[in-house]
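Note to self: the last two entries modelled the partners one at a time, which told us nothing about the interface. This time every component goes in together.
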Amino acid sequence: MDLDEKHLIEYSILGTILLLFIGFFWYFRFDKTALLIVSGAGALLYSIWGIIHHAVQERLTRLIALEYILFGFLVFLLLFFVIGL
Amino acid sequence: MRNKGFIKNWRKNFKAIEKYQFIYHFLPHPERKKRAPFLSHKAFIVYIITIIALSGIFRILPKVVPGILGYASNINVSDLLVYTNKKRNESGLGNLVINDQLSRAAAAKAKHMFEKDYWAHISPGGVTPWDFILGAGYDYVYAGENLARNFSNSKDVVEAWCKSPTHKENLMSSNYDEIGFAVVNGVLDGYETTLVVQMFGRTQGSVRAAAVPEAPAEDVEAVRVAGQPVEEKEEVEQVLEEVPVVSIPERITANEPLIDITTVSRSFFIAFGGFIMGLLVLDIWYSRKKGIKKFTGHTLAHLMLITVALVTVWFILKPGDIF
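The predicted structure of the combined assembly is written out below.
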């Protein structure tokens, strides 16, 4: 399996996670508590995906892991801001 | 030749260079092999702190200055009745008929929630929906209550109730033949909002008059027990006295708070999310153009996440809360 094929598989997993996120977000669109849980789970899964993806590619550093955690948390906070109010 | 000299001199002119330095806050650095400073770890931390601070302000402000922030709405009883009956008809159930006593009970419940500043079926003092219904003179056998707040239109209110199994159970119950609504504007928990109270019922008389008696259902909100004492009777009577006997359906004017939270929070989300999205697109384009190989996380993955977040908020998220 070459690098491009590996990337494709890993990005397909990310795409599935994001599609599931959209699906759950639509399903629970009138339930604020559920939406916050879905947002938190989405952000967490994204951070985990990023870390595992870089670990598999043997390119994982503390800064890269921190970047995925910070970005995931930032997006969650943005969603929290708009859902929670 | 003149042009070449100009470029040579321009490069030496630090002031001229400084004038355009701001652009490097938006672009990846070719030598350091890093993202733009606005996409750095430090920038992310600043954004996170800013959002937390803004969330705090939006939560503290209503406590300090109540009624400034709120939820704009345009809800009316006629539409609520139409959408409710439409949903029932889709399930093969008959129309519910407006009952003024139930509507009065609903109006009293809404008034009580604003006055006592609570959001629940049972008040902190123990007043139940059935107290309002009985207080309004509605002698029920079956009764139920649905609540909604912060919605922008009538259709979303009914759709939200239909998405919740317990609320849907009330809406679709064959035990009810009458309904009452109240759509009231006021300040709840510091926020200017519109409360929607929907009360269902069936009287003793209509059960006796029914050609085919219904078996008592287990899934109704309340089945009255004969001789049940009415708690907080005086409190309920006082609220009911202040609620006029209204002719329903009554059209309710739109609620327009000074600052509409839905518009403000969405605008901020779209503007800030768009800013981050723009930076990420710029990062991908400029890195490819200049052949910059950065040792960072994947910009494309970040771009995918922020795009999905923007799409969901823009197209799916609806304001409102049910109970």
